[in-house]
Design goal:
The chain is α+β, with helices and mostly antiparallel strands. It has helices at 3-8, 50-53, 169-176, 179-183, 248-254, 340-353, 373-388, 392-401, 422-428, 431-438, and strands at 12-17, 24-25, 32-45, 68-70, 78-88, 92-100, 125-127, 135-137, 147-158, 163-166, 206-208, 212-218, 224-225, 270-274, 282-288, 305-314, 323-325, 361-369, 403-409, 413-421. It is built from 10 helices and 20 strands. The strands form 5 sheets. Strands 1, 3, 4, 5, 14, 16, 17, 18, 19 and 20 form a 10-stranded mixed sheet that branches. The longest helix has 16 residues, at 373-388.
């Protein structure tokens, strides 16, 4: 189905997506739908990073859903994704700190893998046995993965009680023998399960589960590896020696910053995304069972999962990257709306000093991305100034006294959060979402 034909069909109110793009997201990918404005989208997603990383046929670091056209979404609009439900379906996964195997990729091991033994580009492959030598080229039989663990773990998951536990080598080996079922790989997923590598360096570690989507948003204006739809990973596309190489300006004009690894993009939040192609092309993937701010190991616990959300088109809201309405408990303390008692106390304070006007405001988070955290922070602040119309220096002040800067991912994705005047949020066309989300008057 072509992108044009999908948009021309009658919109549907409910759509389930269980097909994937094999690592590439962009205008070449046919869209499903269209889904009606206000419609419900349900997706089943396979794990993100490690499975696609060890599967050399992939040309991106994730396996995200086929994009969905949203009726009425035009370039220059935005689409609000209201995440209603998120559920982990994997029973176990594996992750850890990565290292590259030199001589098995052109410039970027996430994008341009080849078999060092027979020279086949992006070779088909299969799993033989257990361990780091398990991934084998279909053409010549050589071990072919471009990635290794420098330190890794296998972790079992209790979705009902939202807890997890890393396991020892014997358990990891048993799980590897049934890797596809333990990973709950969807029927049409093309990746190998990372459980096959069975790296178990730190058994017995208990951890909370708090699932979220690491890659969710709208289709970029040109084809990109799905994991590189952002500025920090995306920087490796600049002048790269493969077919996705591009200039700095081309990358920044095209990307939509869907790959955020922002752990508050979870059940209950609202994510507002730029539209850079007709129909928006909503996609998602890279669910994590848990992750602290920063994703400091480079990778978290990638899992299969199911997500349900509702879409809403916001007309004439031109964005470079996402805006996030976080759950109240995820907001930094300084950016949480005051309750009725606090508002009354503020009015009394103003009256004592002759300041009778008290601004009505609501929380808003701008996602910033860049080659490092300093660049990402400035990017988020400048996005906030551009979209709200507030002077840049005023954004700095607001983010200081009623907001915060938080790391989403190293090396360069951040959240810029502050309380923004409701009059500005109304002008942007999202005031109703903010009022509803935070129960503001």
């Amino acid at each position: 189905m072509s992108r044009t034909s999908s948009i021309e069909q009658l919109p549907v109110d409910h759509l389930r997506v269980q097909t994937y793009t094999n690592g590439i997201i962009g205008p070449s990918q046919p869209m499903l739908g269209p889904l009606a404005d206000g419609g419900t989208l349900v997706t089943g997603t396979p794990p993100g990073c490690w499975g696609p990383m060890i599967t050399p046929a992939f040309q991106g670091g994730h396996e995200v859903t086929q994009p969905v056209a949203i009726a009425g979404a035009e370039v220059g609009d935005a689409v609000a994704l209201k995440i209603q439900r998120m559920r982990v379906t994997s029973l176990a996964t594996s992750s850890g700190v990565m290292k590259f195997v030199e001589g098995r990729y052109h410039g970027d091991p996430f994008v341009a893998k080849f078999c060092a033994a027979c020279g086949t580009e992006h070779p088909a492959s299969h799993v033989e046995g257990v361990g780091e030598d398990a991934i084998r080229c279909n053409h010549c039989g050589a071990e072919v993965s471009a990635f290794r663990f420098s330190h890794g773990y296998v972790i079992v998951l209790d979705e009902e009680n939202q807890v997890s536990l890393t396991v020892n080598q014997d358990v990891a080996n048993r799980l590897a023998g049934n890797a596809g079922e333990m990973s709950a790989l969807p029927e049409l997923a093309a990746q190998h399960s990372i459980l096959s590598l069975a790296r178990a360096d730190m058994p017995g570690v208990a951890a909370h589960m708090r699932p979220f989507l690491g890659n969710i948003g709208t289709t970029p204006a040109r084809d990109l590896p799905d994991s590189h739809n952002c500025a920090d990973f995306g920087q490796y596309l600049i002048d790269a020696p493969h077919r996705f190489g591009m200039t700095h300006d081309e990358l920044h004009a095209a990307k939509t910053d869907g790959h955020m690894d922002t752990n508050s993009v979870r059940e209950g939040c609202i994510l507002i995304c730029p539209v850079k192609v007709p129909g928006a092309g909503v996609y998602m993937g890279d669910m994590h069972a848990q992750q602290g701010n920063g994703e400091i190991a480079g990778h978290a616990t990638d899992v299969s999962g199911e997500t349900r959300l509702q879409v809403e088109v916001i007309k004439n809201l031109t964005l470079e990257g996402p805006i996030l309405l976080q759950n109240f408990e995820d907001l930094p303390p300084m950016a949480r709306p005051m309750n009725a008692r606090q508002r009354q106390q503020v009015k009394a304070l103003g009256a004592r000093w002759g300041q009778h006007e008290v601004e009505q405001s609501g929380p808003i988070t701008f996602v910033g991305s860049g080659v490092n955290l300093n660049a990402a922070t400035e990017n988020g602040l400048r996005r906030a100034a551009a979209v709200t119309g507030l002077p840049y220096d005023e954004v700095l002040n607001r983010a200081t006294i009623n907001g915060s800067i938080e790391i989403s991912r190293l090396p360069g994705t951040v959240r810029v959060t502050f309380l923004c005047p409701m009059a500005i949020l109304d002008r942007m066309g999202i005031g109703h979402l903010v009022r509803e989300k935070y129960q503001l008057q």
